[in-house]
Each structure stands twice: as C-alpha cells, then as structure tokens.
Amino acid sequence: MKFIIEYQRYAVLALVTFLAIVSLLCVPLSAWFWLPFIVFGALGMVGIYDLRQSRHSILRNYPVSGHIRFILESFRPEIRQYMIESDHDEVPFSRQSRGLVYQRAKGAEDKRPFGTIENVYASGYAWLTHSVSPTVIPDKDFRVRVGGSQCKQPYDASLYNISAMSFGALSGNAILALNKGAKKGGFAHDTGEGSISRYHRQGGGDLIYQVASGYFGCRNEDGTFSAEKFAETAADPQVKMIEVKLSQGAKPGHGGMLPAAKITEEIAEARGIPMGMDCISPAAHRTFSTPIGLMEFIAQLRDLSGGKPVGFKLCIGHRREFMCIVKAMLKTGILPDFIVVDGKEGGTGAAPVEFANRVGMPMHEGLTFVHNALRGAGIRNEIKIGAAGKIVSAFDIAQVLALGADWCNAARGFMFALGCIQAQSCHTNKCPVGIATQDPVRQRAVDVGDKSERVARFHHNTLHALAEITGAAGLSDPRNFMPYHFMFRQKDNEFLDGNEMYPYLPEGFLVSGPEIPELSDWHSRWDRSSAETFAPSEIPFGPFKKREMVHNA
Asked: Where would you find the membrane-spanning parts of this chain (predicted)?
C-alpha cells in the first residue's frame, strides 16, 4: 500500500499503457479496437517521453497527467475574464470598460439599469461636477487645429484618434479596418513606428506618420535617417502630421527587435528593410543626441514635409530632461506643433515585465507636468498637447482635456472595437481574433467591412457621449473643461477639487518674475536643465537629516 501511495503519480501512465495493451489484444475480436489502441498507445508514448525529458519537472513526476496543467494555463486568461473576473478587475482593462466599447462599436444599448456599481466612497474615485443649467450641443464633430505659426499645412484633428500601432504588430486586415474606420469617421490613424503599409494606403484615412529610432520608411540601408525617403513618404496626401517617437509608455527607454523569421515581404516593403535579417529598433535616436539637436530635427522634418505639423511623443521620465527640451525651444526659436504625452499605462505588443510595470510616469501626472512646464516657459498656447493611456470613455476624454490635453489618442480602445478580447497573446502570433498576428489564416477572422463600421461607430458614439457630459457640466465645448470640473476622493471621507489635485501653474513663472517659494522644486529643476545636453550638470542630493535615537529606559 505504501508503494502504491508513493508512486500514484504514475497511475495515469500505467493506466493508458494497460489499456493500450488490452486494446491490442482485442484487435482479433474486432478491427475497431485499433482506434483505442492508437489513442492509448500515443498517450503512453507521450508519458515515456515525459519521463525522459529534462525541461519540465512536473512532467517527469506526473507523466501524461501533468499536461493538464499546461492545457489549463493556456486558456487561463479567457477563463478568468469570462467566468471569474469581476466587472472592476483591470487586467489591464476592466470588463465594464471593454463592455462599454463593444456596445458602442456595435451600436447596441450602452445604458445601465439600477444604478452605479462603482464604490463612490472609495479612495481614488473621481466624478464630474454638473450644472443646474445644462446645455445641448448639436455639433458633436469636435476638432482642434494642430499647427503653430511655423507650420504651413495645419490639420484639424478630431478630439479622439487612433494611437500608434504598427503593421507587423497588427495584422493587415486589422490595419485596413482601422484605417477605413478612420476615414468613415473623419479622424486620424497613427501608423506606429512600422511606417505606412499598403493597408494604410488602401484604407485612405488620415495618417499620423510616426518616425521612430529605426527610421522605418525613411532610412538608408545602414539604418540611418534618409531625408530623401522621408520627403517622399511625407508628401503623401494621406499624411497629415509627423510624430517623432522618443519613447512609449509601455516600455520607455527600451528598443526592440523583430526577428528575421517574423518579417514578411509586406512588412519589409512598409519598413524599407531587407528580408532575412533581424530588424532592430534602437533605444535612442542616432540623428540627434541633444535637446537642440531634437529641435533642429523637427525643423528639418517640417521643411522636408512641406510645412506639415511636426511634433514628438514621449513618456515622461527624468522631468529635468523635458525641461531641457523646453529650454532648447526657447533658445532656438523652433517650436514643435504638438507633443503627445504617453502614460506608462499605455499598451504594447510585447515589453519586459519590469518596463511595463515599473518604468515611466503615469499619464495624468506626465500630462500635468508637460502642460505646466510649457505654461511656465510661456509657450503653452503655441503647442498642442495630445494624451494617450487607457482612454476609452467620454469621461476619460473629458478628464484628460481638463488636465491640459488638446486631444486624445487610444490604441486598445479601438482594438476592442475591432473585436479584441484581451487574450493578451499579442506577442505569440496566435491572437484568437486575428488582430495581433501575421498568420494569414487567423487574420481572416477580421472582416474588414464589418469591423471598419464598428471602429467608426465607436468613435461617433463616444463623441456623442462626450457632448452629453459636456452639456451636463453646462459647457458648450469639451475643450472648456478645467480641473475644477472634477473632484477626486483621497480617503473615505475626504476629497479634493481638481484645482488642488492638478493645478494650472502661472504663465511664465519659470522665465519671468521672482521665484515662487511654493514652486521651488520647479525652479531648481529648471536651473539644472540645459538646452545643450540631456546630461545633468549636478546630481541633487536631498538634505541629510540624522535620525534621532530613542533610548528606552
């Protein structure tokens, strides 16, 4: 009995082996016994292999039956989100948020009965203050003009656009559906760093051409920037704006590599790279390395594009480095037309866990900092700000506009509109709905006609909802939202006005007038920044305070 208990983990292997032998012995009685013999024999061979392999300890101890663990693990995300996850569990988007997108994309009922399921007294809860005199807004096609005094071809952008997602990370059908939806809805589609593919061109929608460290679509054979190829690409009438990517929220400060095995002819065509070689995206740009160099690069791109709006995208890290960029703007007189602030909660096809979880500043804090740094330098009115980072509802948009953004971008929200189920298998090439894959069979699941309609419908219904809550606040335009229109609960019985939580700092306080004692950290950081270099002139140390020793009698 002790022997049986000790080795019961091999019982399944022994059972399938026994059944295989019995089935083989019964074959003379009926040819149908070949079927169980093949099944049990195959399982027996799997068990023998499990005992001999050295990669998985669990399979060596539990041959055959140990595979149940891996099978269950393979569809754990689906089990969790459909059967276990609550409406508020954010992994990374809650079921409530995803459901809202699905409903608006399909044109289904998006109202809620019975009342809120939010815990309105919990720390972190935020709400919009409404007016006793609400307004009705008939025109819901909200737009902002992007392009300052140095821009010859300004663009009237929607307040809600598709954020950067590259062809290669997404399938051709997904890109085509997104772009066709953007064209139908009259909003912009950011290409991502993978450049402009045939699917972007086929869709015909407005494009924001992203120029990243790999210079895809505008590179020489050695991977350096090609002014000639950029000018050719940027001349496309579909290209409305150019965005220089310095970093992205999910993996700021991290480069990437697309293995040669994953590079198709279509990807090579879009990126301007050779087949059969790994595609490297460096962590940093090679065309510039200083704040002034960045401004000069922006001026060069604006000139090469014929005066189209040019800006940059980043996730805030060292705040002093952004101030270095602002000082370079003042010193050179070159201003970007826009800055997109990406929060560290932003998405990606694949990122190291440490980067996705712990590197970079969340969007609300990053946006507030950029907005106030530009105000402090006296140039906020010259530069538009876009914001990205888990923005899927009208409330999300309104809140971000109040904190200083001029427009918003969303990536995963529009992926949900395409039919993404948050399976989180984007990096495996096995996306169950055909969105984040290059598998030609899997991507057939994306019906371009139907999904493009859903993308356009989601955009339309979201802006309709934005108009409704704008009217509820007594405003005539969502761009009039200010921080004081929102309240933020800090503790169970305490809350702050938005002006206290995310204040607008005085115009020009960094460059004119006496220092404001309450803003000493801002002044100190500004003094340590330089237009000539990102490197710190000194390393600040906090004041040393000796801890008092407490001696017990």
From this structure: 7-25
Q: What is the pLDDT of residues 63-117, one digit of tens each?
A: 998 888 888 777 776 666 666 666 667 678 888 888 899 999 999 988 878 788 8
| Model pLDDT, residue 548 | 52
CA-to-CA distance for 4 and 211, rounded, in angstroms?
65
Same structural domain for residues 301 and 182? Answer: yes
Q: Is the link from the previous residue into 336 a cis peptide, with omega within 30 of 0? A: no
Reported for 491-496, long-range contacts at CB under 8 A and 24+ positions apart, including other chains, are 491/123, 492/121, 492/122, 492/123
Encoding tokens for residue 398? 């309104």
b (16+ CB within 10 A) / e for 266-280:
ebbebbbbeeeeebe
Q: What is the pTM of this model?
A: 0.88
Enumerate the β-bridge partners of residue 394.
Answer: none
Query: Which residues have CB under 8 Å from 484's CB, separation 6+?
Result: 129, 497, 498, 499
For the chain, report the end-to-end CA distance as a whole number of angstroms: 63
Please report whether residue 544 resides in a domain.
no
For residue 466, which amino acid is it?
Answer: L
Q: Would 536 be classed as within a structural domain?
A: no
CATH number at residue 497: 3.20.20.70
Secondary structure of 6-59 in the HEC alphabet? HCHHHHHHHHHHHHHHHHHHCCCCCHHHHHHHHHHHHHHHHHHHHHHCCCCHHH
Closest CA to 191 of 228, 163, 219, 225: 163
- The answer to the question of residue 286 being in a domain is yes
How many domains does the chain fold into? 2
Q: Which domain holds residue 4?
A: 1-76
Q: Residue 499 to residues 95, 104, 376: CA-CA distances in angstroms?
A: 31, 32, 17
| 211, 295: one domain | yes
